[in-house]
Amino acid sequence: MLAQLKRLGGDSLLYALMNVGTKLIAFLMLPIFTAYLGKEQMGVLENIDSFTSMLTFLVIFGTDSALAFYYFDTKNRELKMSFVQTVLQFRLAVAMLCLLVAAVGGEWMSLLITKESGHGIVILAAMVTLVLESVITLVLTYYRYEFKAKKVVIYTVIRLGAAALLAYLFLRMWSEEVDVIYFGRNIAAGFIVLLLLPDLFKLIRIKVDKEQMKAILKYAAPLVPASLAFWIIATSNRFILTYFEGVGSAGLYGVAVKFATVITLLTSSVQMAWRPYTMSIKDRPDAKKIFSKFYLIILLGGIIGLLGIATFIPYIFKFMISNPEFHSASQYIALLSAGTFLNFYYLIISVGLFIKKETKIISVYFGAAAALSFVLNVTLIPLLSQWGAALAVTISYLFATVMIFIRSQKTYYVPVPVGKMITLFLAGMAAMGVLVWIHNAGLPGYYLVFPWLFFAAVFGASRVLKEIKS
């Protein structure tokens, strides 16, 4: 048992470090990209990446969860390998179809995605990336199921690190155009595929097992709508911004989003620990009281973090992003960070749904949030531009979080002071809004103290600290 715990702990630490490392690599490339690319080129990169991420959902099509189920549902080694081969066949077929469409209709896709012609070669390169990453992801998934965590981490870090290095070198020495970024990604991914060839040959099979394919897709298909709903909320607004204002607007907004999502470096570690922890104490007589305290602690920590972002991010942004063309993006980061926090916080306050195994309703609420997001984007972007996009995504996540919390409380009541939670959240959002306004209005820096004092007063009056200590 001790050996199993050590392996679990070691693998978890490796994956956590990999997660942090890959996010940091992506974030640290942002100053480089914005230094060489203008708003329009960044918009092209944002839109094509967003479009590719949607295609990735279709390529995977929930088969990751299906494969996990069937792989560990049998002890037959040949059958395990057969399921991996079937999933690889499906993913390659869908990815190759995307590549074929891009090869034939790249310019049409360019107009659809960026509202500009001339980006067909970039889209084709992105589809090559999609094919290569479909192969790499499947092989690395197989390694994870075989508990080869070191291989997963090494190949992942090498691929992302090489892609980042090549992108920098190509931008500096070859061309200040977005296509060279994809060329770098493809070279890095191609190199990893070559390294994986010995195991990849074992997974390649020409003949399709129709029964296995049917079983996998039957299991996987219900998971796809939820993934698409998350995509609609998080990224579809780039295309709506492009439609109304041009691809440069999407580029500016995308830079703000990348800064806002950096907080996932902190929330992802809590997220990884939260589910096992809650399941481990759910049968304790004081479990609900413990959950209540964590609801408050995490909400309070999140609000303080958001106030910190609103206070300091304009200075950090200008320090990191040298190109003044992007400096106005800093004003949206705090609001977008609030949306990112809410997308994490729903996992905390939905503990009852997981304990009672009623998680399907989460997909329903996020489906409704996706529809709300589309309506808000179409309505608000023409009126408020990037502010409209930021409001749409944050309101949509807030809607989903509130609905999930209400349903979770009905399913498994946690005695949390809801009124105080609402008061803290509203006071925090008001203080955050004032902090952003102070920066935008160019007021003296000491004005930033007053929103903090306001929130501190509300916090003290709410006596939330007493609730936590009790």
From TrEMBL:
Coiled-coil regions listed: none
Main location: membrane
InterPro entries: Poly_Biosynth_Transport, Polysacc_synth
Pfam families per record: Polysacc_synt
Localisation: Cell membrane
Ranges annotated as spanning the membrane: 12-38, 50-72, 92-113, 119-140, 152-171, 183-204, 216-233, 253-274, 294-317, 329-355, 362-381, 387-406, 418-439, 445-465
Keywords tagged on the record: Cell membrane, Membrane, Transmembrane, Transmembrane helix
Membrane topology (UniProt): Multi-pass membrane protein
Protein name per Swiss-Prot or TrEMBL: Lipopolysaccharide biosynthesis protein
Organism annotation: Fictibacillus iocasae
